[in-house]
Write a structure and sequence with these properties.
With 828 residues, the protein is mostly helical. It is built from 42 helices and no strands.
Length: 828
């Protein structure tokens, strides 16, 4: 019964305390609402709190590649204003010429690397006819476009990596010797190999075998090596050189060559350093023509780059791994696993998984775009289709007969691989046909690309016509066109002062774009004869053409005649799309920082990151830092202040002297020095600021308040009734000091936020993003220098304003609370 009464007593006391708390809160809230400064500060803090709390939601909605506050970069061109105001002359010129140049490269993509080299020479020499002054870099973007858009050469680099890795792993075995002259090729036959060859064959037989290649570099190297091995026997050297120049019958040459190749293969076959090269069209053609490796080796080399990606995905899908182990590509699992990072680390695995997922999805989409529906859930079929596509890309320029021979070999190996090969090659043929149709209209000559070498720099001159006519029509009669023309005419770089483009812009102003411009926006009519001619040439050497007949017929039936209906709005939209495509693929670049716009409400910084998102993401950390530092300060200051007041004597003297020292301590300077000895993050900074503040001036203020409470009668009553020192301090003194402690807590938030801003400005804080770091970025980029501070206001005003506003808000809140804590400050 007594137990129940005690519980009821405690419950009634708790209810009384709660009612008193509610009553006091209402009374103090009514007083606080009379303070305009306090209410202003409170509402600003609430707004900042909501602003910061929304940051995770906003980041999940926005594209992280563009809006991530640290790694995001907006390279998009979103309106014509970007073109006229935010692009350099160099990028405008590139934007006018590169789109057409990309199709120009496609038009000769099946002609081989020798033809490609002649096109590069034409581009280099065009400056002498186009430019009025010496401008060596004026045509550089054409050379870059050839290197970037010539797909076979780029794909063969990946293919070469696969071949080399499989050879090094012992999964591809081959003999690189296919011709007698290969004994003079350092990539296939070393000097030591040659020395061993001479011990197994007489020099007369070797000379006969090499006689048909007397003018080649390989034979010259053989003669040099032979002289080096017989430097003391001039007569033997002369006999060997004379024998190479001799005349022999076909039977003699054939017999000698067979003997040399047989012995050379036996020597080179044991050389572990032998390597197979497929980087050029000629090297790959030689491998296919001489069947140096099997088609299965070529398929394995093509898919090797995908095996590690599938192994990463298989960690989340056991069925995928099981399929891979049971497929014909299982032999490559072991070497692929060695290429993977430590996937047991969660962060590493998540990044690797996202990368692998994106890579595989991109390939699935590419398959879909050429007419093949194939998911990676069926691993073997997926890899076979991909292998066919990869082999089509690397072989498109190796010659018609050699390419057909490769397809015949693929057909014997796998129908699925051949399907990928045919569909990809057909898609390439279609793109080449589009490009050749466009170029034939630009040059008024259907004999493209063969006519290029005859026309020379005339080919380069016309490449600016389509986009120039599109721009002149879209911007005609407005200041936009005048800005573009002025930008080019007044270029500070001679290489991009392109008066020929200016003339075209004036010539085409307000005229409907030329027909070739339709091809740049995907609406040009393909010349069916050009497409059909490529198909027929390829089919001539195939064993089975039925599949090609089906694919070609389907492609031709899908070709629909298009007529572009032009309007200025439509032309401007397509022009922006062209420039945007170039920008997001890093062919041209937008000049950041950009002023506020509907895509970036507070503009972008010099790196191209969104300032509004940076401001939002930084807000929670500023709040946490300020409140945590202030809380530590108040807790320490309250305990020390009340203890010093209550105990007095030595305790009081020690704590007061520490407080005096802390008040004289230069905290900012100390933090700057301290950051040189330790990595400063938000938690460490809050702790240090809390310690510096807690042992500082707040101790004196709270001690004075505690002294007034110490002499109150109820303190004596508590002491007389047997209350311990700790009980009296924590139950009677500290609760009465807390209002003043809370008041000074508000003031300490301001100091913490400002300290973090200073350290971040100097780059001394380890923090992902903060307001001080935002200002540091602007300063280090030179935009706060003389003459720029007003021109680029959007880069520093948001961060500086946020620091000022948040610090002021907490200060005003403190002033409002001070009127409650200190009755003398209340308005009468």
């Amino acid at each position: 019964m007594a137990q129940i009464n005690n519980n009821q007593a405690r419950e009634s006391i708790a209810k009384i305390k709660f009612k008193l708390f509610v009553k006091n809160f209402k009374k103090n809230w009514a007083l606080f609402r009379e303070s305009k400064m306090g209410m202003f500060g409170l509402w600003v803090i609430i707004v900042f709190g909501i602003f910061g709390a929304l940051s995770p939601i906003v980041l999940n909605i926005l594209d992280p590649n563009i809006y991530d506050p640290v790694t995001g970069l907006d390279s998009r061109i979103l309106s014509s204003k970007y073109i006229t105001d935010y692009l350099s002359t160099q990028n405008i010129v590139k934007g006018i010429e590169v789109p057409t140049a990309q199709l120009w490269v496609y038009s000769f993509m099946d002609k081989g690397e020798a033809f490609k080299s002649s096109m590069e020479n034409i581009a280099r020499n065009a400056q002498y006819e186009i430019m009025t002054t010496y401008a060596p870099d004026s045509m550089r973007h054409f050379l870059d476009t050839i290197a970037d858009s010539y797909i076979p050469a780029k794909e063969r680099l990946y293919f070469q990596n696969g071949v080399s890795e499989l050879i090094n792993a012992g999964l591809i075995k081959f003999s690189s010797i296919t011709s007698p002259k290969d004994v003079g090729n350092r990539d296939k036959f070393s000097f030591q190999n040659f020395s061993e060859l001479l011990q197994k064959i007489d020099h007369k037989t070797l000379a006969i075998a090499l006689s048909p290649y007397v003018d080649s570099d390989e034979v010259s190297r053989v003669q040099l090596w032979y002289r080096s091995l017989n430097r003391d026997n001039e007569q033997a050297v002369e006999e060997f050189n004379s024998a190479i120049l001799g005349q022999y019958s076909e039977d003699e040459i054939k017999e000698a060559q067979q003997k040399v190749i047989e012995i050379a293969k036996s020597i080179a076959g044991g050389d572990a350093t032998a390597q197979l090269y497929v980087q050029s069209d000629q090297q790959l053609a030689e491998v296919i023509e001489n069947e140096i490796v099997s088609v299965s080796d070529l398929v394995n080399s093509a898919v090797l780059r995908l095996i590690p990606e599938l192994l990463v995905l298989a960690r989340e899908d056991e069925k995928l791994l099981e399929q891979l182990k049971n497929s014909k590509f299982s032999t490559m699992i072991e070497i692929s696993e060695k290429k993977l990072s430590n996937l047991s680390d969660k962060n590493i695995f998540e990044q690797a998984y996202r990368k692998a997922k994106t890579e595989i999805e991109n390939i699935e989409n590419e398959m879909k775009s050429i007419g093949i529906e194939q998911s990676y859930d069926e691993v073997e079929k997926f890899l076979e289709v991909y292998a066919g596509m990869a082999l089509a890309k690397v072989s498109v320029d190796i010659g018609v007969s050699t390419r057909a021979k490769l397809e015949n070999q693929i057909a014997e190996y796998s129908d699925t691989v051949r399907m990928g090969f045919i569909y990809e090659l057909n898609d390439i043929f279609k793109k080449i046909a589009v490009a050749r149709t466009m170029m034939s209209k630009l040059l008024n000559d259907e004999n493209v690309p063969d006519v290029y070498e005859t026309l020379g720099s005339q080919v380069i001159k016309v490449l600016s016509d389509p986009v120039a006519s599109l721009m002149a029509y879209a911007f005609g009669g407005t200041k936009k066109l005048s800005k573009v023309i002025a930008n080019i005419e007044n270029s500070q770089l001679d290489d991009f002062r392109r008066y020929d483009i200016v003339e075209k812009l004036k010539k085409y102003e307000n005229k409907e774009p030329i027909e070739a411009a339709s091809f740049l926006i995907g609406e040009g009519d393909i010349n069916e004869n050009i497409y059909q001619r490529m198909i027929d040439e390829h089919k001539m050497n195939l064993n089975d053409t039925s599949k090609w007949d089906e694919v070609a017929s389907k492609t031709i039936s899908s070709l629909v005649s298009k007529k572009t209906t032009w309007s200025k709005e439509f032309a401007e939209k397509k022009l922006v799309e062209l420039f945007n495509t170039l920008s997001i693929t890093n062919k041209i670049g937008v000049g950041h920082p950009l002023p506020p716009s509907r895509w970036h409400w507070l503009g972008t910084d010099p790196v191209g990151r969104d300032i509004f998102v940076q401001l939002m993401v930084s807000t929670p950390s500023e709040f946490v830092l300020g409140v945590l530092a202030a809380l530590i300060t108040v807790v320490i200051g309250t305990i020390i202040g009340t203890a010093a007041a209550y105990y007095g004597g030595v305790v009081d003297v020690i704590f007061m002297r520490i407080a005096d020292i802390m008040m004289l301590f230069p905290s900012i300077a100390f933090l700057i020095v301290l950051s040189g000895f330790m990595t400063m993050n938000l938690f460490k900074l809050a702790l240090i600021l809390g310690l510096l503040g807690g042992f500082g001036g707040i101790t004196l203020v709270l001690k004075a308040q505690a002294l007034t409470i110490k002499v109150k009668p109820y303190i004596d009553a508590a002491r007389v009734s047997g209350g311990s020192h700790g009980y009296i301090i924590f139950n009677h003194i500290i609760p009465n000091v807390m209002p003043l402690s809370f008041l000074y807590m508000m003031f300490n938030v301001t100091g913490a936020v400002f300290s973090e801003a200073v350290l971040s400005f100097f780059g001394l804080m380890k923090v992902r993003m903060s307001w001080g770091l935002m200002i540091n970025t602007v300063w280090s980029s030179g935009y706060l220098g003389s003459g720029n501070i007003g021109a680029y206001w959007w880069m520093w005003v948001p961060a500086g304003g946020a620091i000022t506003l948040l610090c002021s808000a907490f200060y005003f809140l403190g002033r409002g609370l001070e009127e409650i804590v200190n009755p003398r400050l209340r308005k009468r």
